């Protein structure tokens, strides 16, 4: 269910899945995910590139939803793939490669959030270390609202933040959310409900985010 | 402004989330990060020049003849390996999963990930240093310098032996903790899920820096354990986290220390009857749990050993066994400090097991049994979250108020204040909440 007041231009789930892999090392691989896993375990030289070309765009989006788009995102994506490639033998059912990779990505993102929380004091003590604002196609007003959104998400616990971002930003179903987070379905629901409540409470206190949300008729009734 | 209906809130959040996702996708499409990461991930590491020393030539030759082992490793350049001047040779190393047949090793490269699943991996360095990667561990050889290597342990345990030379400078990063080494033998472990750091010095001295401890030297026979607080609030790294558990203990007996080999030996047979205590102190938790005679230990072991056994079980992913040890400890030594810590850890186990009500009860006990003890503040903080997760908002608010009265600057203070602020907007809670 979507709000007609806000245009939605969500990209397809895997926009590059039908595109020929880039680069020489990923060329020529044919097969489903189970075949890809077998190729990785055999040490086929083109398999890592094929894995990356097939799944990196989606994993990058999942990480972006959880963490936001910033300069650290490539590092986290790199770390995710390093983890995946380093532990591919630990994957049980090769047909579940994608959900397994999503879980690795989510757990890597969780570690990143915790590291950021521990490092956050630096932002106050050393302003010269603040990252430069990124320049992109997003209008300033929307960019500011997204920044405030992630400011609010920083105040949620990781158990609240992960289901919230995966459910509402990435659009996952609850079962997918639970699987990605390693929660039971009931726990995922509980954390999601709690995250919703906390989000609304905190968003009400943020004038920029509140005003941005209030453009939507649905939110304007709540804020 | 009333409370929104759940379906209205979901629809509004779905709509807002989709808009944010579209903005992010536009941002991502404007970046080259996918291609950049791909290039880094798939790039062939630069060859490292070998030292022109006789013994190392033999190892290099073995590397060239390497057969494919059962290791799982992947080259990566996260945090580009440091440049080494052409005239100064950096260390090299080889990876082997079969210590009985070192010739079956393959050459490693800087930036490589080594993931050990079921069998330990051995990294043999050209300066004579050696690192064993325990099963279920991930480590990255982040940099190779002439004077040492930089290892980044993401998960699991390492046994590290560093050959001492005048200019030796090794570094082992384990989660947020950094271990500076000039020549020693030690075991180090990092559990990112529990946020627990363990270090046992068999020989020598290292300097450890990290959250909650600033900088600390650890010497021969000492064990350093740091458990970070399970809080989602930022902890200034320049002040020790009040909720952080830091334990430094001496080796219990010199016999036990001597019983362990000075460094891993490829041709030495495995000990016939491993001492679970020694295994636990080496962070080989699963092996310790398997080696212990549980019935005997539960009836005879000291309170400290029962705590050690429970910790080994907990950290090896055996919560039922951990619970058995902690409950046994509390049964036999109800007045001990270890009993209080057991109550606290039983609370954590219950939380992780999804039984928040039980967790809250254990945290209550930990607070009440030793209100001024070292675990009181941690238990008081986690009690708030446990009650909250259990859906007992009233008890959570009471716990939050109690916490703020006692620890207004504590690590859970922000959580407590936010909870009370949230509760303040709820009419039901306002009825009972005192001023």
Structural overview:
The complex is a heterodimer of chains A (223) and B (435). Chain A has 223 residues and is an all-alpha fold. In chain A, 62% of the residues lie in helices and 0% in strands. Chain A is built from 11 helices and no strands. Chain A has helices at residues 33-42, 47-67, 73-86, 97-119, 121-125, 140-153, 158-169, 174-181, 185-205, 207-213, 217-220. Chain A starts with 32 loop residues before the first helix and ends with a helix. Chain B has 435 residues and is of the alpha+beta class. Helices cover 40% and strands 22% of the residues of chain B. Chain B contains 15 helices and 16 strands. Chain B has helices at residues 6-29, 33-42, 54-64, 254-259, 276-281, 285-291, 294-300, 303-315, 319-332, 337-352, 356-369, 376-389, 393-406, 413-424, 427-432, and strands at 72-75, 93-96, 106-107, 112-116, 121-125, 130-133, 137-145, 148-162, 170-174, 177-181, 184-191, 196-203, 205-210, 214-219, 223-227, 245-249. Chain B has a 16-stranded mixed beta sheet that branches. In chain B, a hairpin with a 4-residue loop joins strand 5 (121-125) and strand 6 (130-133). Chain B is globular and about 65 Å long. The two termini of chain B are 25 Å apart. The interface between A and B is large, with 84 and 64 residues.
Helix content, binned percent of chain A: 55-70%
Largest sheet of chain A: none
Largest contact between chains: A-B, 84 and 64 residues
> What Rg of chain B is obtained from the alpha carbons, in whole angstroms?
25 Å
């Amino acid at each position: 269910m979507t709000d007609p007041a806000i245009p939605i231009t969500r990209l397809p789930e895997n926009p590059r899945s039908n595109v020929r892999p880039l680069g020489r090392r990923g060329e020529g691989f044919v097969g489903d995910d189970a075949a890809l896993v077998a190729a990785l375990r055999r040490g086929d030289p083109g398999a890592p590139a094929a894995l990356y070309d097939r799944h990196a765009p989606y994993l990058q989006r999942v990480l972006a939803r959880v963490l936001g788009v910033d300069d650290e995102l490539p590092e986290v994506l790199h770390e995710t793939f390093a983890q995946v490639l380093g532990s591919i033998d630990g994957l049980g059912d090769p047909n579940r490669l994608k959900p397994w990779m999503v879980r690795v990505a989510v757990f890597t993102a969780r570690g990143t959030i915790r590291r950021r929380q521990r490092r956050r004091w630096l932002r106050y003590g050393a302003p010269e270390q603040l990252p430069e604002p990124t320049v992109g196609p997003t209008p300033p007003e929307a960019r500011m609202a997204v920044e405030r959104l992630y400011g609010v998400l920083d105040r949620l616990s990781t158990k609240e933040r992960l289901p919230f971002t995966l459910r509402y930003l990435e659009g996952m179903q609850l079962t997918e959310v639970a699987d990605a987070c390693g929660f039971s379905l009931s726990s995922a629901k509980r954390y999601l409900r709690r995250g919703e409540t906390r989000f609304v409470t905190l968003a009400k206190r943020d004038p920029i985010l509140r005003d941005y949300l209030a453009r939507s008729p649905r939110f304007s009734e709540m804020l | 402004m009333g409370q929104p209906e759940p379906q209205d809130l979901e629809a509004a959040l779905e709509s807002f989330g989709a808009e944010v996702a579209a903005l992010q996708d536009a941002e991502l499409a404007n970046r080259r990060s996918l291609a950049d990461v791909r290039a880094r991930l798939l790039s062939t590491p630069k060859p490292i020049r070998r030292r022109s020393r006789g013994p190392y030539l033999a190892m290099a030759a073995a590397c060239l003849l390497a057969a494919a082992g059962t290791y799982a490793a992947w080259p990566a350049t996260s945090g580009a390996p440091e440049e080494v001047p052409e005239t100064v040779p950096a260390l090299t190393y080889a990876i082997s999963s079969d210590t009985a047949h070192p010739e079956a090793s393959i050459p490693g490269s800087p930036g490589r990930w080594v993931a050990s699943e079921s069998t330990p991996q051995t990294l043999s360095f050209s300066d004579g240093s050696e690192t064993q990667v325990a099963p279920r561990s991930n480590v990255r050889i982040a940099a190779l310098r002439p004077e040492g290597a930089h290892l980044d342990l993401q998960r699991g345990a390492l046994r590290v032996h560093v050959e001492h030379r005048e200019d030796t400078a090794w570094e082992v990063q384990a989660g947020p903790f950094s271990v500076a080494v000039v020549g020693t033998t030690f075991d180090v472990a990092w559990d990112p899920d529990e946020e627990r750091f363990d270090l046992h010095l068999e020989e020598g001295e290292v300097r450890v820096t990290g959250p909650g401890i600033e900088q600390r030297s650890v010497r021969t026979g000492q064990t350093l354990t740091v458990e970070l607080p399970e809080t989602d609030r930022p902890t200034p790294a320049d002040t020790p986290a009040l909720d952080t558990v830091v334990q430094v203990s001496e080796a219990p007996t010199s016999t036990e220390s001597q019983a362990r080999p000075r460094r891993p030996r490829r041709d030495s047979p495995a000990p016939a009857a491993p001492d679970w205590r020694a295994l636990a102190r080496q962070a080989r938790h699963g092996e310790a749990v398997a080696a212990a005679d549980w019935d005997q230990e539960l009836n005879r072991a000291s309170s400290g050993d029962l705590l050690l056994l429970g910790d080994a079980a907990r950290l090896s992913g055996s919560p039922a066994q951990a619970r058995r040890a902690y409950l046994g400890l509390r049964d036999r030594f109800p007045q001990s400090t270890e009993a209080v810590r057991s109550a606290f850890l039983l609370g954590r186990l219950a939380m992780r097991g999804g039984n928040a009500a039980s967790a809250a009860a254990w945290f209550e006990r930990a607070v009440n049994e030793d209100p001024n003890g070292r675990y009181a503040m941690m238990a008081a903080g986690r009690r708030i979250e446990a009650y909250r997760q259990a859906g007992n908002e009233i008890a959570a608010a009471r716990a939050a108020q109690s916490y703020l009265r006692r620890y207004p600057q504590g690590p859970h203070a922000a959580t407590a204040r936010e909870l009370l602020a949230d509760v303040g907007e709820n009419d039901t809670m306002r009825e009972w909440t005192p001023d």
